Amino acid sequence: MRLPEISFKVVEDHSCPLYRVGDEFKLSGDILVLPHDKTTCLILTSDIAKTSKQQDFEDFCKNDRNYGYSFDCNGCTGLVTLTAYIKKEKRIMADKPVKLTAHRPGTVVKSDTDIETIASLLTDFSFFQTLDENEIRELVSLLELRKFVKGDCIIRKGDPGTNLFIIIFGKVEVLGDDGISIAFLGKGEVFGEMSLLSGDPVGATIKVVDPTTILYINGKDFRKVLKRFPDLQMYFARLLAQRLAKTNVVRSEEIASGMIGQLSEMPPSELFQTLNTNQKTGVLNLSLPQGSADLFFRDGCLIGVKYNEEESEEAFYEILKETEGRFKFVPGLPPDKVDAEELGDFMWLLMEGIRRMDEEKGENEI
Predict the structure, then answer these.
(1) What's the pLDDT tens digit per position in 263-312?
(2) By CB atoms within 10 Å of each CB, which of 6, 257, 263, 314 scores lowest?
(3) In a domain, 211, yes or no
(4) Tally of CB atoms within 10 A around 12
């Protein structure tokens, strides 16, 4: 059904940073015309796009009534209430048109004005505070927006990691094994980074507690951003360490008395991160298809690595690629390693190894 031209008028304003009572939006097909000299709000345009596709709204248009359909926007720092009605007069194409093309439910393509609006909104988020205004706009241009309702699962434990998510409104719950609640995340917080950085499947389920609006970036673009902005690498290194510290408490006790297992069950990146986060001291012995390897940890810091004839960062990067083999962690260090210097910052080594794996994978796909 092709919808007639519909107007959305702001009838209530609760500290909205952009719009006031009386501001009017005109929708014709998939073209939205904004009030004169007003900035685009991506949240509100998404609300209008979604509302215009709902069945009850189509029935409203079929009945050809002038008034009677009101709704609230999803809000950011403020909130507006809009009333929709059918415009009988000739369509007016004035001001700034915004294309509301949905790639998937709840997703809207951004214009240059959208990018400016989102960049302004996100300036105070800790994720963006290492970047200047131009860098934020560059990053925002890579983001997509989606909205979720209470009870939705955004990602599930065991799924492949595909996106980094940034919460701009709402609340989600982090669930571990057997649906046990691990934490709650809200406005300004991010999730999905661990699987993107490690290359491992998603480690926890993220379930929506309150209606939530999310900005997300796909894994390929996320890795480009990390390479483009080194300060973000340090941000995620710290975040990764904090997250692992909370989720690896149980494993810490197991490692203290030694641990054995299969890399197919616990891949190298996860194994190394666990030792680092729990500040363990000892030797990790690996039996790999191409030979044996030893990694030496002191208080969680990597102080040495041996893989066949190689004893450098390159050996560490090669071990990260392995998916089959056995491992055994033995507490304590040999005398010649007790005072050895760190091989390098662990989180930097880990992210560099993941980046190299991504590049190698890309070259193999060409």
Answers:
(1) 888 889 888 988 888 888 999 999 898 889 999 999 999 999 999 888 88
(2) 257
(3) yes
(4) 13
